[in-house]
Amino acid sequence: MNRIALGFLCLAGLSFTSAAPAAAPPTRTVRVALPGDAGFAFKPGLGAIAAQTYCLACHSSAYVSTQAVLSAAQWTAEVNKMRAVYGAEIPADQVPIIAGYLTTEYGKP
After folding, report:
1. Which of 47, 57, 64, 94 is most exposed, with minimal Cβ within 10 Å?
2. Domains contained in the chain, CATH given
């Protein structure tokens, strides 16, 4: 087979196996409504404002209130993990306040 025929076959094969053309960019704005916290809210208590300020920046109160029952050490570890691993902007002096609140309202002493 000569080079021209081989080149033509290669090009023809590529046109049949290539991916679909890129989708056209959207022409309108679409709004998405999320369900929210499904009726959950942080319980009132000492430290609730700190939890609302720093925890709700990344996730809902339902996420917190549906976690396993944790001890003070475990809640402290969770808050520190949010800071160190996930980059939550929680000041160091707020960690014991938030962990204390979470332990009192959602944990075990």
Report:
1. 57
2. 46-109 (1.10.760.10)
